[in-house]
Amino acid sequence: MKLLLTLDLQFFAGEKTEKATPKKRQDARKKGQILKSQDVTAAFVLLILFLFLYITAPKMLESLFSFLHQAFEKNMLIESLTADTVMKIYVDTLKEMAMVLLPFMVIALVAGIGSNYLQFGFLFTMETMKFDLKKIDPIKGIKRIISVRAIVNLLKSLLKISFIGAVTSIIIWINLEEVLSLSFQSTWDTLTTVAKLTGMMGIAASITLVFIALLDYIYEKYEYEKQLKMSKQDIKDEYKNAEGDPKIKAKIKQRQREMAMRRMMQEIPQADVVITNPTHYAIALKYDESMDAPTVVAKGTDFVAQKIKLIAKENDVVMVENRPLARAMYDQVEIGQQVPEEFFKAVAEILAYVYRIKRKI
């Protein structure tokens, strides 16, 4: 019965039911384990690109015509080709292509970086690029293929295809008259209509992807939190590693108390007076001309108080009984501190009494 109870306790202690600690999250981030949805990045980039195309299409068309004009009117009319003219054609072509493609590429780059930054902030790590044999383990590869995550990814893909197909079909259905009249339009009007419908379908599909990406982000967050969960034993081990073993810390504190006690007892023979309760409290005071006020060199209750009085008796330190003063000073004054002003009068009377006794002796 005891064995079964022990096994049950070990099982529950090892079950990952607790939320990840900040340290666990920080360590996972350093390893590249972050909350990230690829669909969010893809949807955000596509939406920004189609909006950019829809707004700047006329300007990009002018740049494209300029490129074609450069290629078919100027370059084709060059009579003699030399190394210099070929290099000039190459440079001019690159410039015209850059005017067309560079804004598009810059927008895509900024959108990709921005979408990732919004998800997990700035992060640079090489941990994910390290060679790991576990990544090419065929057994784990098969498990990933038939895992719940693979099924979810399949459902997401089907959902994307269904939604995007439905949205584009709706847009074509709404503009069916324009689509059917394409065969009766001029080439320029046909291209204009197709470009307009393509932009509308792209924006609508991107908005649909954004909606799906939000659902994917929620799922990824659930999986991320589930992956980071810790057992109670993991939390205890982390605390031990970060703060030290509680048993060792307790031993260190005990050793520190013992050392402080020995130092305190060594100061008692140099004290001028020990104020007692008389049985439960003992306060040892020391005063000389270099001090602004008398200083507490030792204090204690019960057993420690008896020890202080024993050492004081062995070293001929005068003991004076003053119950309220001993109790009040024990509560308000720490070892090494000077006596507060509110106790000056009472302490001065006791020290005067002690000095009179010492003079008689």
Sequence of secondary-structure elements: HHHHHHHHHHEEEHEHH
**Helix/strand class:** mainly alpha
Instruction: Provide mean pLDDT, rounded.
Output: 76
How helical, in percent, are the residues?
A: 55-70%
Continuous helix count? 13
- Number of structural domains: 2
Number of DSSP-assigned strands: 4
Identify the strand order in the major beta sheet: 3-2-1-4
Q: How much of the sequence is in beta strands?
A: 5-15%
Family: Belongs to the type III secretion exporter family.
Transmembrane segments: 40-57, 100-125, 146-174, 194-219
GO cellular component, one term: plasma membrane
GO biological process, one term: protein secretion
List the SSEs and their pairings.
Blueprint: H1 2-14, H2 22-30, H3 38-74, H4 83-120, H5 138-145, H6 148-174, H7 176-180, H8 187-228, H9 232-243, H10 246-267, E1 273-276, E2 281-286, E3 295-301, H11 303-314, E4 318-321, H12 323-332, H13 344-360
Parallel strand pairs: 1-4
Antiparallel strand pairs: 1-2, 2-3
Structural description of this entry:
With 361 residues, the chain is mainly alpha-helical. It folds into 2 domains: 35-229, no CATH class; 266-360, secretion proteins EscU (name from scop), CATH 3.40.1690.10. It contains 13 helices and 4 strands. It has helices at 2-14, 22-30, 38-74, 83-120, 138-145, 148-174, 176-180, 187-228, 232-243, 246-267, 303-314, 323-332, 344-360; strands at residues 273-276, 281-286, 295-301, 318-321. β1 (273-276) and β2 form a beta hairpin. α6 packs antiparallel against α8 (187-228). The chain is elongated and about 130 Å long. Mean pLDDT is 76; it is low at 1-13.
